[in-house]
Protein backbone atom coordinates (compact mmCIF):
# COMPACT_ATOMS: atom_id res chain seq x y z
CA UNK A 1 0.00 0.00 0.00
CA UNK A 2 1.35 3.43 -0.93
CA UNK A 3 2.03 5.66 2.02
CA UNK A 4 2.40 9.39 2.23
CA UNK A 5 3.35 11.94 4.79
CA UNK A 6 1.06 14.70 5.91
CA UNK A 7 1.67 17.84 3.90
CA UNK A 8 2.72 19.91 6.88
CA UNK A 9 4.88 17.26 8.55
CA UNK A 10 8.57 18.22 8.76
CA UNK A 11 10.79 15.92 6.75
CA UNK A 12 13.72 14.16 8.31
CA UNK A 13 12.38 14.27 11.86
CA UNK A 14 11.07 11.59 14.17
CA UNK A 15 7.33 11.27 13.86
CA UNK A 16 4.49 8.89 14.45
CA UNK A 17 3.91 5.97 12.03
CA UNK A 18 3.09 7.09 8.50
CA UNK A 19 -0.50 7.45 7.44
CA UNK A 20 -1.97 4.99 4.98
CA UNK A 21 -3.98 6.19 2.01
CA UNK A 22 -6.96 3.95 2.72
CA UNK A 23 -10.61 4.20 3.74
CA UNK A 24 -11.08 5.28 7.38
CA UNK A 25 -12.22 1.82 8.43
CA UNK A 26 -9.26 -0.02 6.93
CA UNK A 27 -5.88 -0.63 8.50
CA UNK A 28 -2.92 -0.78 6.14
CA UNK A 29 0.73 -1.57 6.68
CA UNK A 30 3.37 1.09 6.33
CA UNK A 31 6.79 0.61 4.85
CA UNK A 32 8.11 0.53 8.39
CA UNK A 33 6.37 -2.79 8.85
CA UNK A 34 3.90 -1.39 11.39
CA UNK A 35 0.14 -0.94 10.96
CA UNK A 36 -0.49 2.48 9.51
CA UNK A 37 -2.55 5.20 11.15
CA UNK A 38 -6.15 5.10 9.92
CA UNK A 39 -6.83 7.59 7.18
CA UNK A 40 -8.14 10.85 8.50
CA UNK A 41 -11.80 11.59 7.82
CA UNK A 42 -12.33 13.97 4.91
CA UNK A 43 -12.84 17.55 5.90
CA UNK A 44 -16.58 18.28 5.88
CA UNK A 45 -17.92 20.47 3.12
CA UNK A 46 -20.24 22.85 4.94
CA UNK A 47 -23.38 23.93 3.14
CA UNK A 48 -23.15 27.71 2.73
CA UNK A 49 -26.87 27.98 3.38
CA UNK A 50 -26.56 26.18 6.71
CA UNK A 51 -23.14 27.19 8.05
CA UNK A 52 -22.30 30.73 8.93
CA UNK A 53 -19.37 32.07 6.93
CA UNK A 54 -17.55 34.14 9.47
CA UNK A 55 -14.74 36.35 8.21
CA UNK A 56 -11.46 34.49 8.15
CA UNK A 57 -9.51 35.98 11.02
CA UNK A 58 -6.23 34.55 12.16
CA UNK A 59 -6.33 33.69 15.82
CA UNK A 60 -3.33 34.89 17.81
CA UNK A 61 -0.79 32.20 18.56
CA UNK A 62 -1.86 30.17 21.56
CA UNK A 63 1.63 30.18 23.02
CA UNK A 64 2.76 33.76 22.47
CA UNK A 65 2.59 36.29 25.31
CA UNK A 66 -0.04 39.00 25.02
CA UNK A 67 -0.95 41.93 27.22
CA UNK A 68 -4.35 42.04 28.85
CA UNK A 69 -5.19 44.95 26.57
CA UNK A 70 -4.48 42.77 23.52
CA UNK A 71 -6.67 40.00 24.90
CA UNK A 72 -9.48 42.48 25.49
CA UNK A 73 -9.12 43.94 22.00
CA UNK A 74 -9.21 40.49 20.37
CA UNK A 75 -12.32 39.55 22.34
CA UNK A 76 -13.90 42.88 21.40
CA UNK A 77 -13.18 42.27 17.70
CA UNK A 78 -14.88 38.87 17.91
CA UNK A 79 -18.01 40.37 19.45
CA UNK A 80 -18.09 43.15 16.83
CA UNK A 81 -17.94 40.51 14.08
CA UNK A 82 -20.88 38.76 15.72
CA UNK A 83 -18.77 35.79 16.78
CA UNK A 84 -20.07 34.89 20.24
CA UNK A 85 -18.89 31.27 20.16
CA UNK A 86 -16.40 31.83 22.98
CA UNK A 87 -19.24 32.91 25.24
CA UNK A 88 -21.91 30.43 24.16
CA UNK A 89 -21.92 26.87 25.57
CA UNK A 90 -23.04 23.91 23.50
CA UNK A 91 -25.92 22.13 25.30
CA UNK A 92 -25.47 18.37 25.55
CA UNK A 93 -29.23 17.93 25.26
CA UNK A 94 -29.37 16.33 28.74
CA UNK A 95 -31.36 19.16 30.27
CA UNK A 96 -30.68 18.86 34.03
CA UNK A 97 -27.00 18.23 33.35
CA UNK A 98 -26.71 21.33 31.17
CA UNK A 99 -28.34 23.39 33.90
CA UNK A 100 -25.68 22.36 36.41
CA UNK A 101 -22.62 22.88 34.18
CA UNK A 102 -23.48 26.37 33.02
CA UNK A 103 -25.58 25.62 29.97
CA UNK A 104 -23.45 22.97 28.28
CA UNK A 105 -19.96 22.29 26.95
CA UNK A 106 -17.63 25.26 26.63
CA UNK A 107 -14.68 25.77 24.35
CA UNK A 108 -11.24 24.87 25.77
CA UNK A 109 -12.83 22.58 28.39
CA UNK A 110 -11.99 18.92 28.93
CA UNK A 111 -14.93 16.87 30.21
CA UNK A 112 -14.45 13.33 31.53
CA UNK A 113 -17.30 10.82 31.51
CA UNK A 114 -16.55 7.85 33.77
CA UNK A 115 -18.37 4.73 34.79
CA UNK A 116 -18.26 0.97 35.05
CA UNK A 117 -18.42 -1.26 32.00
CA UNK A 118 -21.91 -1.49 30.52
CA UNK A 119 -23.30 1.52 32.41
CA UNK A 120 -24.05 3.42 29.16
CA UNK A 121 -21.03 5.70 28.69
CA UNK A 122 -20.89 5.25 24.91
CA UNK A 123 -24.67 5.61 24.65
CA UNK A 124 -24.51 8.92 26.55
CA UNK A 125 -21.50 10.28 24.63
CA UNK A 126 -22.87 9.34 21.19
CA UNK A 127 -26.26 10.82 22.07
CA UNK A 128 -24.56 14.06 23.13
CA UNK A 129 -22.64 14.12 19.85
CA UNK A 130 -25.90 13.56 17.95
CA UNK A 131 -27.62 16.35 19.88
CA UNK A 132 -24.84 18.79 19.03
CA UNK A 133 -24.68 17.79 15.36
CA UNK A 134 -28.47 18.27 15.03
CA UNK A 135 -27.94 22.02 15.37
CA UNK A 136 -27.18 23.88 12.15
CA UNK A 137 -23.60 25.14 11.99
CA UNK A 138 -22.37 22.70 14.67
CA UNK A 139 -20.21 19.62 14.05
CA UNK A 140 -19.31 16.68 16.28
CA UNK A 141 -16.22 14.49 15.80
CA UNK A 142 -16.58 11.06 17.40
CA UNK A 143 -13.38 9.01 17.77
CA UNK A 144 -14.19 5.41 18.70
CA UNK A 145 -11.64 2.82 19.75
CA UNK A 146 -14.43 0.37 20.58
CA UNK A 147 -16.81 0.30 17.60
CA UNK A 148 -16.79 0.70 13.83
CA UNK A 149 -18.51 3.61 12.16
CA UNK A 150 -21.14 1.25 10.76
CA UNK A 151 -21.99 -0.06 14.22
CA UNK A 152 -22.33 3.48 15.55
CA UNK A 153 -24.62 4.30 12.60
CA UNK A 154 -26.80 1.29 13.44
CA UNK A 155 -26.99 2.44 17.06
CA UNK A 156 -28.09 5.87 15.92
CA UNK A 157 -30.82 4.38 13.73
CA UNK A 158 -32.14 2.54 16.80
CA UNK A 159 -31.94 5.76 18.82
CA UNK A 160 -33.77 7.73 16.14
CA UNK A 161 -36.53 5.13 16.07
CA UNK A 162 -37.57 6.25 19.58
CA UNK A 163 -36.79 9.91 18.80
CA UNK A 164 -35.37 11.41 22.03
CA UNK A 165 -36.63 13.30 23.92
CA UNK A 166 -40.01 11.86 22.96
CA UNK A 167 -38.84 8.28 23.69
CA UNK A 168 -41.73 6.48 22.01
CA UNK A 169 -40.67 2.85 22.38
CA UNK A 170 -43.81 1.44 20.75
CA UNK A 171 -42.23 1.73 17.31
CA UNK A 172 -38.67 1.40 18.54
CA UNK A 173 -36.08 -0.64 16.66
CA UNK A 174 -33.63 -2.95 18.35
CA UNK A 175 -30.47 -4.01 16.52
CA UNK A 176 -31.98 -7.41 15.75
CA UNK A 177 -35.09 -5.74 14.29
CA UNK A 178 -32.94 -3.52 12.10
CA UNK A 179 -30.80 -6.40 10.86
CA UNK A 180 -33.84 -8.60 10.19
CA UNK A 181 -35.43 -5.88 8.05
CA UNK A 182 -32.29 -5.41 5.98
CA UNK A 183 -31.52 -9.11 5.54
CA UNK A 184 -35.09 -10.21 4.76
CA UNK A 185 -35.70 -7.44 2.24
CA UNK A 186 -32.38 -8.06 0.51
CA UNK A 187 -33.12 -11.78 0.33
CA UNK A 188 -36.53 -11.16 -1.24
CA UNK A 189 -34.97 -8.87 -3.81
CA UNK A 190 -32.25 -11.34 -4.74
CA UNK A 191 -34.79 -14.14 -5.08
CA UNK A 192 -37.08 -11.90 -7.10
CA UNK A 193 -40.09 -12.72 -4.96
CA UNK A 194 -41.36 -9.17 -4.77
CA UNK A 195 -40.67 -8.38 -8.41
CA UNK A 196 -38.19 -5.62 -7.58
CA UNK A 197 -34.57 -5.23 -8.41
CA UNK A 198 -31.87 -5.42 -5.78
CA UNK A 199 -31.85 -2.14 -3.89
CA UNK A 200 -29.42 -0.23 -1.73
CA UNK A 201 -29.36 -0.05 2.05
CA UNK A 202 -30.81 3.46 1.98
CA UNK A 203 -33.60 2.30 -0.32
CA UNK A 204 -34.49 -0.53 2.06
CA UNK A 205 -34.49 1.80 5.06
CA UNK A 206 -36.40 4.53 3.27
CA UNK A 207 -39.15 2.24 1.98
CA UNK A 208 -39.72 0.23 5.16
CA UNK A 209 -42.33 1.90 7.40
CA UNK A 210 -40.44 0.91 10.56
CA UNK A 211 -37.15 2.50 9.50
CA UNK A 212 -38.15 5.38 7.22
CA UNK A 213 -38.59 8.00 9.95
CA UNK A 214 -35.39 6.96 11.73
CA UNK A 215 -33.44 7.37 8.49
CA UNK A 216 -35.05 10.75 7.84
CA UNK A 217 -34.07 11.99 11.30
CA UNK A 218 -30.52 10.66 10.94
CA UNK A 219 -30.08 12.36 7.56
CA UNK A 220 -30.77 15.75 9.17
CA UNK A 221 -27.33 15.70 10.80
CA UNK A 222 -25.50 12.96 8.89
CA UNK A 223 -23.15 15.47 7.23
CA UNK A 224 -22.24 17.11 10.54
CA UNK A 225 -21.45 14.02 12.65
CA UNK A 226 -17.94 12.88 11.72
CA UNK A 227 -16.76 9.47 12.92
CA UNK A 228 -13.54 7.49 12.78
CA UNK A 229 -12.73 3.96 13.88
CA UNK A 230 -9.52 4.42 15.81
CA UNK A 231 -6.91 1.78 16.52
CA UNK A 232 -5.62 1.35 20.09
CA UNK A 233 -2.25 0.46 18.60
CA UNK A 234 -1.63 3.27 16.13
CA UNK A 235 -4.22 6.07 16.42
CA UNK A 236 -2.01 8.32 18.47
CA UNK A 237 -2.55 11.47 20.46
CA UNK A 238 -0.70 13.35 17.71
CA UNK A 239 -3.08 11.91 15.10
CA UNK A 240 -6.07 13.13 17.13
CA UNK A 241 -4.44 16.54 17.42
CA UNK A 242 -3.88 16.72 13.65
CA UNK A 243 -7.40 15.59 12.76
CA UNK A 244 -8.90 18.05 15.24
CA UNK A 245 -6.85 20.90 13.80
CA UNK A 246 -8.05 20.19 10.26
CA UNK A 247 -11.68 19.74 11.23
CA UNK A 248 -11.70 22.84 13.46
CA UNK A 249 -10.41 24.87 10.52
CA UNK A 250 -12.89 23.32 8.07
CA UNK A 251 -15.87 23.95 10.37
CA UNK A 252 -14.96 27.46 11.41
CA UNK A 253 -14.30 26.28 14.96
CA UNK A 254 -17.83 24.92 15.39
CA UNK A 255 -16.57 21.54 16.54
CA UNK A 256 -16.93 19.31 19.61
CA UNK A 257 -14.59 16.33 19.96
CA UNK A 258 -15.53 13.02 21.62
CA UNK A 259 -12.96 10.33 22.51
CA UNK A 260 -14.18 6.81 23.31
CA UNK A 261 -12.10 6.04 25.30
CA UNK A 262 -9.09 7.73 26.93
CA UNK A 263 -7.08 4.70 28.08
CA UNK A 264 -6.95 3.32 24.52
CA UNK A 265 -5.36 6.40 22.97
CA UNK A 266 -1.91 5.47 21.66
CA UNK A 267 1.13 7.67 22.29
CA UNK A 268 4.05 8.10 19.88
CA UNK A 269 6.90 9.04 19.90
CA UNK A 270 6.49 9.46 23.65
CA UNK A 271 7.17 6.39 25.76
CA UNK A 272 5.39 5.64 29.02
CA UNK A 273 6.95 3.72 31.88
CA UNK A 274 3.58 2.36 33.01
CA UNK A 275 -0.16 2.88 32.54
CA UNK A 276 -0.27 5.76 35.01
CA UNK A 277 2.42 7.59 33.06
CA UNK A 278 0.58 6.94 29.78
CA UNK A 279 -2.74 8.22 31.13
CA UNK A 280 -0.98 11.37 32.35
CA UNK A 281 0.43 12.00 28.86
CA UNK A 282 -2.94 11.38 27.19
CA UNK A 283 -5.09 13.48 29.53
CA UNK A 284 -2.62 16.38 29.40
CA UNK A 285 -2.59 16.06 25.61
CA UNK A 286 -6.39 16.11 25.34
CA UNK A 287 -6.54 19.21 27.52
CA UNK A 288 -3.92 20.84 25.30
CA UNK A 289 -5.98 19.98 22.20
CA UNK A 290 -9.02 21.66 23.77
CA UNK A 291 -7.00 24.77 24.59
CA UNK A 292 -4.93 24.99 21.39
CA UNK A 293 -7.83 24.45 18.98
CA UNK A 294 -10.48 26.21 21.07
CA UNK A 295 -12.92 23.29 21.14
CA UNK A 296 -14.65 21.28 23.86
CA UNK A 297 -13.27 17.76 24.30
CA UNK A 298 -15.35 15.02 25.93
CA UNK A 299 -13.56 11.80 26.79
CA UNK A 300 -14.88 8.55 28.21
CA UNK A 301 -12.73 7.06 30.98
CA UNK A 302 -12.81 3.47 32.21
CA UNK A 303 -12.73 2.54 35.89
CA UNK A 304 -9.98 0.54 37.59
CA UNK A 305 -10.39 -2.81 39.33
CA UNK A 306 -11.10 -1.22 42.69
CA UNK A 307 -13.83 0.87 41.11
CA UNK A 308 -15.48 -2.22 39.67
CA UNK A 309 -15.57 -3.71 43.17
CA UNK A 310 -16.80 -0.54 44.84
CA UNK A 311 -20.44 -0.08 45.79
CA UNK A 312 -20.35 3.34 44.20
CA UNK A 313 -17.88 4.54 41.59
CA UNK A 314 -16.09 7.86 42.16
CA UNK A 315 -13.61 10.02 40.28
CA UNK A 316 -10.67 8.50 42.13
CA UNK A 317 -11.69 5.07 40.83
CA UNK A 318 -11.01 6.00 37.22
CA UNK A 319 -8.19 3.99 35.70
CA UNK A 320 -4.91 5.83 35.42
CA UNK A 321 -3.43 8.67 37.39
CA UNK A 322 -4.30 11.65 39.55
CA UNK A 323 -3.80 13.78 36.42
CA UNK A 324 -7.37 12.86 35.46
CA UNK A 325 -8.59 14.93 38.41
CA UNK A 326 -6.13 17.79 37.89
CA UNK A 327 -6.52 18.30 34.14
CA UNK A 328 -10.27 18.00 33.59
CA UNK A 329 -12.66 20.91 33.96
CA UNK A 330 -15.74 18.74 34.52
CA UNK A 331 -15.91 15.13 35.68
CA UNK A 332 -19.20 13.22 35.43
CA UNK A 333 -19.41 9.79 37.05
CA UNK A 334 -22.19 7.35 36.10
CA UNK A 335 -23.63 4.74 38.47
CA UNK A 336 -26.63 2.42 38.26
CA UNK A 337 -29.26 3.92 40.55
CA UNK A 338 -30.38 0.58 42.01
CA UNK A 339 -26.78 -0.19 43.03
CA UNK A 340 -26.22 3.12 44.82
CA UNK A 341 -29.51 3.45 46.68
CA UNK A 342 -29.03 3.51 50.46
CA UNK A 343 -30.60 0.14 51.19
CA UNK A 344 -30.34 0.54 54.95
CA UNK A 345 -32.56 3.61 54.84
CA UNK A 346 -35.85 3.22 56.71
CA UNK A 347 -37.87 4.01 53.59
CA UNK A 348 -36.08 1.56 51.31
CA UNK A 349 -38.49 -0.82 49.62
CA UNK A 350 -36.73 -3.61 47.65
CA UNK A 351 -39.77 -4.21 45.45
CA UNK A 352 -40.26 -0.57 44.56
CA UNK A 353 -36.50 -0.18 44.06
CA UNK A 354 -36.51 -2.64 41.14
CA UNK A 355 -37.81 0.14 38.90
CA UNK A 356 -34.49 1.95 39.35
CA UNK A 357 -32.43 -0.74 37.60
CA UNK A 358 -32.91 1.12 34.32
CA UNK A 359 -31.95 4.50 35.77
CA UNK A 360 -28.43 5.90 35.79
CA UNK A 361 -27.20 8.51 38.26
CA UNK A 362 -24.92 11.16 36.74
CA UNK A 363 -22.83 12.78 39.48
CA UNK A 364 -20.84 15.94 38.75
CA UNK A 365 -17.82 15.23 40.93
CA UNK A 366 -15.77 18.13 39.61
CA UNK A 367 -16.91 21.41 38.11
CA UNK A 368 -14.45 24.29 37.83
CA UNK A 369 -17.14 26.80 36.95
CA UNK A 370 -19.98 25.75 39.24
CA UNK A 371 -21.31 23.44 41.91
CA UNK A 372 -19.92 19.94 42.26
CA UNK A 373 -21.16 16.73 43.92
CA UNK A 374 -24.59 17.13 42.38
CA UNK A 375 -26.66 14.08 41.41
CA UNK A 376 -29.20 13.76 38.63
CA UNK A 377 -30.79 10.68 37.09
CA UNK A 378 -31.73 9.64 33.56
CA UNK A 379 -33.70 6.62 32.41
CA UNK A 380 -31.73 4.32 30.13
CA UNK A 381 -33.49 2.56 27.25
CA UNK A 382 -30.60 0.22 26.51
CA UNK A 383 -32.25 -1.84 23.72
CA UNK A 384 -32.60 1.39 21.72
CA UNK A 385 -29.21 2.89 22.75
CA UNK A 386 -30.89 5.99 24.17
CA UNK A 387 -31.30 7.91 27.40
CA UNK A 388 -34.38 9.95 28.17
CA UNK A 389 -32.54 13.30 28.26
CA UNK A 390 -35.16 15.07 30.35
CA UNK A 391 -34.00 13.47 33.60
CA UNK A 392 -34.44 14.86 37.10
CA UNK A 393 -32.61 15.43 40.36
CA UNK A 394 -32.19 12.40 42.60
CA UNK A 395 -34.62 12.53 45.51
CA UNK A 396 -33.87 9.23 47.23
CA UNK A 397 -31.02 8.71 49.65
CA UNK A 398 -27.91 7.26 48.07
CA UNK A 399 -25.00 5.54 49.71
CA UNK A 400 -22.39 7.95 51.10
CA UNK A 401 -25.30 9.62 52.92
CA UNK A 402 -25.97 11.92 49.99
CA UNK A 403 -29.49 13.35 49.83
CA UNK A 404 -30.71 15.95 47.38
CA UNK A 405 -34.05 17.47 48.23
CA UNK A 406 -36.52 18.53 45.60
Automatic annotation (TrEMBL):
Residues 1-62 are annotated as: Disordered. It comes from the Bacteria. Pfam families: DnaB_C. InterPro entries: DNA_helicase_DnaB-like_C, P-loop_NTPase. Residues 38-47 have a biased composition (Pro residues). Residues 83-394 form the SF4 helicase domain. One of its GO terms (biological process) is DNA replication. Residues 48-61 have a biased composition (Low complexity). GO terms for cellular component: cytosol. Gene3D superfamilies: P-loop containing nucleotide triphosphate hydrolases. One of its GO terms (molecular function) is ATP binding. This is SF4 helicase domain-containing protein. It comes from Candidatus Thermofonsia Clade 1 bacterium.
